[in-house]
Specification:
The protein is 62% helix and 0% strand.
Length: 280
């Protein structure tokens, strides 16, 4: 699995040589079979690598939330990421459950009956993929736990309550894409709850997630290390590479646009200010 996800041999070796390599690879293959993208699998693999390097070798006997949170705090102290701890926990728990190593807290939701029926409906009636059921189940459980903590009832829930949930729980923690996914999960749940008269039927349609643009997660531009590598690849005496090298430098260093470079002519260049060796 690591051979497929990583092109760099050093990265592959690090993932293969870390603890629980077989268990991690098996879970990643399971996620791939359920439709996870390569980008998602790489994120999961990176988080699970960190986790595996900090797990107790006896983890197969069971691990509780407090132990996982302690590992997540260590990651935050090193990586300094606002959402690093939450991301690690969200990725680690499904893997630990998949392996049978997760100690499920013996807590029961106030809305447990509605929640159990909703999960069954997603899985058996709608036929959602196991990955979708798992993800939406986690989002809805988190929302219902918040309702309990704040003493809110589904039958009296208002759009302002849902807004308050996103503001109080997501500020500084959830990205725009995460907010969009959570909003979608809650809309489906509240529509289902409304069909059973558990909440206002207008509530689901009042939830508006942020607009997510196609391919917005792609980088805005190549990293400088990538630019330097392209320049190094074209730094030869081949006539085509001489031309490409000059074009790349005009784009990367001088900030010319594509059309400006395409329309450039020799008589437009003040050769007194240009070092020939600089371009080749």
């Amino acid at each position: 699995m690591f051979q497929t996800l990583f092109s760099d041999e050093a990265a592959r070796r690090r993932h293969r040589n870390a603890p629980f390599a077989d268990e991690r690879a098996r879970y990643l293959q399971h996620c791939a079979d359920q439709g996870a993208t390569r980008a998602t699998l790489r994120v999961k693999s990176t988080e699970l690598l960190w986790l595996a390097e900090h797990l107790d070798p006896r983890v197969s006997q069971g691990i509780e939330l407090e132990e996982l949170q302690e590992i997540a705090r260590k990651r935050v102290s090193i990586c300094k990421g606002a959402s690093t701890a939450r991301r690690l926990i969200d990725i680690a728990r499904p893997w630990l459950r998949y392996m049978g190593w997760w100690c499920v807290p013996a807590t029961r939701l106030q809305f447990q009956d509605q929640f159990d029926r909703y999960v069954t409906w997603m899985r058996d009636e709608r036929g959602f993929s196991p990955l979708t059921v798992e993800r939406w189940q986690a989002h809805v459980r988190m929302f219902l736990q918040w309702c309990e903590r704040t003493d809110r009832q589904l039958c009296t829930l208002q759009p302002s309550d849902v807004d308050h949930y996103f503001v109080s729980e997501g500020a500084g923690r959830w990205s725009r894409i995460s907010v969009s996914h959570i909003a979608s999960a809650l809309r489906v749940f509240l529509r289902y709850a409304a069909t059973h008269r558990a909440c206002d039927p207008r509530l689901a349609e009042a939830i508006r997630g942020p607009r997510v643009y196609e391919q917005e997660s792609l980088p805005y531009a190549p990293g400088w290390s990538d630019v330097r590598r392209m320049l190094a690849d074209t730094a030869t005496c081949d006539p085509r590479n001489v031309r490409d090298h000059a074009i790349l430098m005009l784009l990367a260093i001088y900030g010319l646009r594509r059309g400006e470079v395409a329309s450039l002519r020799l008589d437009q260049i003040d050769w007194a200010d240009v070092s020939y060796g600089y371009f080749v």
